[in-house]
C-alpha cells in the first residue's frame, strides 16, 4: 500500500469511528478535534512502523513483487529504513503514553505486537507465512481493536461520558470484519509469484488468484447488500434513500469494474485494489 493511501485510510477510518459517539452538533467542539488529533497522529506513526517493518523483512520478496518500493529498489538503505521505523515506533508510543488515554495506548500496543508478529523473522513469528494467521492479524487490528479503542477514546476520555456501545458501532465492527478479511485476501493476489518463491502460503498461492478475486467480490457484494437491508429498515426516509441507492450504485460499479480486471496484469489488479479502497 502506498504512503498516501495508508494515511488516507487512517484519516477516514479513525475519523469515521470517532464521530459515532457524538450525540449532537454541540459535540463538534475544539475538545473533540484535539481528541481526534491525539488519536490520528500516533496511529499513523504506528501504521508507518507496521508497514515499514514488513518491508524491512520482505526486501527479497519485494524485489520480485514490488521492485519499485524504496528498500527493494535501493532508493533507501536498510540502515535508513531501520532508523525511520524505529523513530515512528518510539514517537507513537511516546504520544500514546503522554495523551493518557488507555484505549488509545492499548490500540497502539496491540498494533505493534501483531504487526511485529506478522512480519518479523523469529521463531513462532512471521505469521504472514500462514494465510489464516495473516488474516487474523489484519482482522483483529482493523476490524475490532481500532473500532472499539477509538470509540471509547472519544466517548469516555474526550467527551467524558460513560461507555455505551451503539448500534452504529456494532454495524461498523461487523462491516470492518468483512472488509478487513477482503483486504487480507486481496492484497496477496498480485504477489503470487514472489510469495510462492519464498514459501509464503497465502490463499492466492493455495487457491489461485482468480478464485480469491471472485471470493472477494462476492463478499463485498454481500456487505453492500447487508447495508441496503439495514438502510431500508431506517425510520428516516432520507437515510433510507441515501443508504439503499448509494450502496446499490456502489455494488453496480464494483461489478462493472470487476469484470474488466485482467488478473494476469499487476497494474490492472492494483488499480482495482485502489478502487475497492475508494468504494468502501
TrEMBL record:
InterPro entries in the record: UbiA_prenyltransferase (IPR000537), UbiA_sf (IPR044878)
Domain of life according to the entry: Eukaryota
GO MF, any single term: prenyltransferase activity
Transmembrane segments: 30-57, 78-99, 105-125, 132-152, 164-186, 212-230, 236-256
A GO CC term attached to the entry: chloroplast membrane
Record keywords: Membrane, Transferase, Transmembrane, Transmembrane helix
Location of this chain's protein in the cell: Plastid, Chloroplast membrane
Keyword Metal-binding: no
Membrane topology qualifier: Multi-pass membrane protein
Family: Belongs to the UbiA prenyltransferase family.
Protein name: Homogentisate phytyltransferase
Natural source organism: Camellia sinensis (Tea plant)
Amino acid at each position: 500500500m502506498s504512503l498516501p493511501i495508508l494515511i488516507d485510510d487512517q484519516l477516514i477510518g479513525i475519523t469515521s469511528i470517532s464521530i459515532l459517539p457524538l450525540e449532537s452538533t454541540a459535540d463538534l467542539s475544539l475538545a473533540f478535534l484535539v481528541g481526534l488529533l491525539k488519536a490520528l497522529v500516533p496511529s499513523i506513526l504506528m501504521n508507518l512502523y507496521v508497514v515499514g517493518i514488513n518491508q524491512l523483512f520482505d526486501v527479497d520478496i519485494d524485489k520480485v513483487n514490488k521492485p519499485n518500493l524504496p528498500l527493494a529498489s535501493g532508493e533507501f538503505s536498510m540502515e535508513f529504513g531501520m532508523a525511520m521505523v524505529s523513530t515512528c515506533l518510539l514517537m507513537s508510543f511516546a504520544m500514546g503514553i503522554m495523551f493518557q488515554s488507555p484505549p488509545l495506548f492499548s490500540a497502539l500496543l496491540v498494533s505493534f505486537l501483531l504487526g511485529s508478529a506478522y512480519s518479523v523473522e523469529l521463531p513462532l513469528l512471521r505469521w504472514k507465512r500462514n494465510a489464516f494467521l495473516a488474516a487474523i492479524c489484519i482482522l483483529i487490528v482493523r476490524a475490532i481493536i481500532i473500532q472499539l479503542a477509538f470509540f471509547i477514546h472519544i466517548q469516555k476520555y474526550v467527551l467524558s461520558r460513560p461507555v455505551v456501545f451503539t448500534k452504529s458501532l456494532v454495524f461498523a465492527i461487523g462491516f470492518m470484519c468483512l472488509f478487513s478479511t477482503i483486504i487480507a485476501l486481496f492484497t496477496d493476489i498480485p504477489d503470487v509469484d514472489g510469495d510462492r518463491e519464498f514459501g509464503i502460503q497465502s490463499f492466492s498461492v493455495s487457491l489461485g488468484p482468480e478464485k480469491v478475486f471472485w471470493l472477494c467480490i462476492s463478499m463485498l457484494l454481500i456487505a453492500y447488500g447487508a447495508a441496503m437491508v439495514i438502510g431500508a429498515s431506517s425510520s428516516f426516509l432520507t437515510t433510507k434513500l441515501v443508504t439503499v441507492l448509494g450502496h446499490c450504485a456502489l455494488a453496480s460499479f464494483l461489478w462493472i469494474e470487476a469484470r474488466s480486471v485482467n488478473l494476469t496484469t499487476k497494474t490492472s489488479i492494483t488499480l482495482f485494489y485502489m478502487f475497492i479502497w475508494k468504494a468502501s
